[in-house]
Design a protein that fits this description.
This protein is an alpha+beta fold. The protein has 20 helices and 28 strands. The strands form seven sheets. It has a seven-stranded mixed sheet with strand order 3-5-1-12-9-10-11. Strands 7-15-14-13-8 form a five-stranded mixed sheet, with helices on both faces. A four-stranded mixed sheet has the order 18-26-27-28, sandwiched between helices. It starts with a helix and ends with a helix. This is Xanthine dehydrogenase family protein molybdopterin-binding subunit.
Length: about 775
């Protein structure tokens, strides 16, 4: 199907491969987007969360009488009022190295016995207005005995550290190991050279443009909840909220999501506030709204990254990789998020090998609870970190061994003639030409012209360095995904699917896929994603899998439309079904020019009245696409930096990327996805770091203290493609959403190391840190 689809797309203005502008941009630019906080439901009250000011402490009592007496207050609730609800827990069934399951934590909507991080919710107030709720929240009295806190994972796992939970010895919730430790140690013992680096992946605040917000409603007549919330997939969130927390059948909860202003993994799962507004709505008999403020977001939104890692690479005398080893501490925060355990474990081991034929790998990670905000997925969720570790090891090993780093990479690349390749982590690479991608990137970056640019920088009193980020990442495995096509009476066609756009722009590429296959007019295609009542399946959006999952589901539904259309067209054209052909949006009788367009056919059969049993009265089709294997987007980023030795300031001067994203449905949007990931990678490399005091207070709790990249921190970002179509999904795509981070972290940090003469420096490479390294 893929070859036919690509051949068809070349004839179409809005087909696959065309740089079509995003359909939703005019809506958003004109202020017509509808985010959760834009909504006002008749009769709504306001909710304000009361959060712990202590990182660690025993709750003696929560006094609510003064708050209840405040003007406009409708209710004040504590953990005792929420006892009927189920907990939030880690959901990925990872096991310890001894085979026992990870030690889970039951997190209720409000803290009951202890608080475990600054920002831990302990109560909430509902009032007629937001101002009244805020005033009353300040009157809630917290009697909390403060305890010693610990914020670093390695420190929390050390003997004598403060213990967060009685049932988690040494605060280690998961002691994970993958790989044959004996074989890896033997490989290291016989290696001609071993490179070891201690690398920190700094903790990140997600900083989505739209703070989290939710509106809870209770339909007394139907005994049904409605939650309006920004999320990454209404089907999955409904399952978690209904089954685990509300303890009701899924049909007793409807989740509605409109526009979402960014998430990057953070808004994928349930949060305490969602149960709070639903409980209050049921108790009060009216809608209840909560919208976080940025200060609250800094402490209550799950953070990203935060790993302390020792990475080692063993090589033979020729430079062939023998084994790679990762020993890491992963900081989980005060509670276990649904996926927080997977970043430094499953995603490290799936991505550390990258595109290299490394025969052995060992990943050992202790996931540790600390008195910090919980960790969850953040753009890449362990994939960028693993690629960063590998590329820093390769660059350092080449320098230590006196070898050319490019030649070392090519020596170890998996070759096209070795594909399909099953790596030592079990991944099955189906396609790719990794050395060709690297070569194209070197040419695009004018690698050979670097010497002249370096000389010019030196003449200006600046240091200049260049770095390569040669990456490959595993996407998340697509879950079962709904594909539904509805031919509406107004002549439009609605796509219904379970992925969810939180800034990516799904409407346009999904429409391009459908337009290419069925010839439906591009401008007539609509998209529904954010209503759980419309879904029978849906994996949500995450792990760079949306186009592979929804695109495949759309194509599968389109085949059902064609089959229905052949029967309907045969009836209308008075021909046998076996004689009806379909191409370019038209059903025709084979060997003739007699036919009918798909849109005309859809309109006609709707009005024909009683039809024979084998003739459909609609072209509407709904299907569930089964899981496709993971895909492996890859590429090469090349970065050049300039450093001012007098101030330590790092400036990213040149940046080039060449990517293999398989079949690119929309090049304009794929480049935009890459640019966004690069910006976030540069932010982590140079600016962003969550810092805590010894007693667990957040020191970087606002944009006065936490640095984000701005436009003048970024150069023009070059984007080119060297695609090898994916062979394991019908669209041929490999995913692009997280790849920008996977390439940018190593490219930027390798460039800085190069400018500093090969010295290793950890992220973020702030002016203070760089200046200190330059001046000893």
């Amino acid at each position: 199907m893929l070859d036919a689809l690509l051949a068809e797309s070349t004839k179409l203005k809005f087909g696959i491969g065309q740089p079509v502008p995003r359909n939703e941009d005019p809506i958003l630019l004109q202020g017509r987007g509808r985010y959760t906080d834009d909504l006002k439901v008749d009769g709504q009250a306001w909710c304000i969360i009361v959060r712990s000011p202590y990182a660690h402490g025993i709750i003696r009592s929560i006094g609510t009488e003064a708050a209840r007496a405040m003007p406009g207050v409708l209710g004040v609730y504590t953990a005792a009022d929420m006892a009927e609800y189920g907990p939030m827990r880690a959901t990925i069934p990872l096991k310890n190295r001894d085979g026992t399951p990870l030690i889970n934590v039951d997190r209720g909507p409000l803290a009951a016995d202890k608080v475990r991080f600054v920002g831990d919710p302990v109560a909430f107030v509902v009032a007629e207005t937001k101002a009244q709720a805020k005033d009353a929240a300040e009157m809630v009295e917290m009697d909390i005995d403060s305890l010693d806190a610990v914020t670093e994972a390695s420190a929390a796992a050390a003997p004598g550290a403060p213990q967060l939970y009685d049932h988690i010895p040494n605060n280690v919730a998961l002691d994970f190991q993958f790989g044959d430790a004996a074989k890896v140690e033997e490989a290291f013992a016989r290696a001609a050279h071993v490179t070891t680096l201690k690398i920190r992946s700094n903790r990140i605040v997600v900083c989505a443009m739209e703070p989290r917000s939710a509106i809870g409603e209770w339909d007394q007549a139907e005994e049904r909840y409605v939650l309006r919330v920004g999320c990454q997939g209404v089907f999955g969130l409904r399952a978690q909220m209904a089954k685990d927390i509300l303890k009701v059948p899924p049909e007793k909860l409807r989740i509605l999501t409109g526009n979402v202003g960014g998430s990057f993994g953070m808004k994928a799962s349930a949060y305490p506030e969602y149960a709070c507004v639903l409980h209050a709505a049921k108790m009060l008999g009216r809608p209840v709204k909560w919208t976080d403020e940025r200060t609250g977001s800094f402490v209550s939104d799950c953070h990203g990254r935060d790993h302390e890692t020792e990475a080692s690479l063993a090589l033979d005398a020729e430079g062939k990789f023998l084994a790679v080893k990762i020993v890491s501490y992963g900081n989980l925060g005060g509670y276990l998020s649904t996926v927080g355990n997977n970043m430094g474990t499953g995603n490290f081991l799936k991505n550390i090998q990258s595109n290299y034929a490394t025969p052995l790998l060992l990943v050992e990670t202790k996931n540790v609870v600390t008195n910090t905000t919980p960790i969850t997925a953040y753009r890449g969720a362990g994939r960028p970190e693993a690629n960063y570790f590998m590329e820093r090891l390769i660059e350092t090993a080449a320098r230590e061994m006196g070898k050319d780093a490019i030649a070392l990479r090519k020596l170890n690349h998996i070759r096209p003639d070795q594909l399909p390749w099953v790596s030592s982590n079990g991944s099955a690479y189906d396609s790719g030409n990794f050395s060709a991608v690297l070569d194209k990137a070197l040419a695009a970056a004018d690698w050979d012209g670097f010497a002249a640019r370096k000389a010019a920088s030196e003449a200006a009193g600046k240091l200049r360095g260049r770095g390569i980020g040669n990456f490959l990442e595993c996407t998340a495995p697509p879950q079962k995904e709904q594909g539904e096509l509805v031919f509406e009476e107004d002549g439009s066609v609605t796509i219904v699917t379970g992925t969810l756009d939180y800034g990516q722009g799904h409407w346009t590429p999904f429409a391009q896929v459908l337009h290419t296959r069925l010839g439906v007019p591009f401008e007539k295609i609509r998209l529904v994603q954010g209503d759980s009542d419309r879904l029978i399946a849906g994996g949500g959006t995450g792990g760079s899998k949306s186009l592979m999952a929804s695109g495949a589901a759309i194509l599968q539904a389109a085949e059902m439309v064609i089959e229905k259309g052949r029967h309907a067209a045969g009836y209308i054209l008075e021909a046998g079904v076996e004689d009806i052909e379909f191409a370019e949006g038209r059903f025709t009788i084979a060997g003739t020019d007699r036919g009918i367009g798909i849109m005309e056919l859809a309109a006609q059969i709707r009005t024909l009245g009683p039809l024979p049993q084998d003739v459909p009265n609609s072209l509407d089709s709904r299907t569930v696409f089964d899981e496709a294997p993971m895909a492996y987007p890859n590429g090469c980023h090349i970065c050049e930096v300039e450093i001012d030795p007098d101030t330590g300031k790092v400036s990213v001067d040149r940046y080039t990327t060449v990517n293999d994203f398989g079949v690119i449905v929309n090049p304009l949007m794929a480049a935009g996805q890459a640019h966004g990931g690069i910006a976030q990678g540069i932010g982590q490399a140079l600016l962003e770091r969550v810092a805590y005091s010894e007693d667990g207070q957040l020191l970087t709790g606002s944009y006065m203290d936490y640095g984000l990249p701005r436009a003048d921190d970024l150069p023009s970002l070059g984007f080119e493609s060297e695609p090898s179509p994916c062979k394991t999904n019908p669209v041929g795509s490999k995913g692009a959403g997280e790849a920008g981070c996977a390439g940018s972290l190593p490219a930027v940090m390798n460039a800085i190391s190069d400018a500093l003469g090969g010295k290793h420096i950890n992220m973020p490479a702030t002016p203070e840190t760089v200046w200190a390294m330059i001046h000893g």
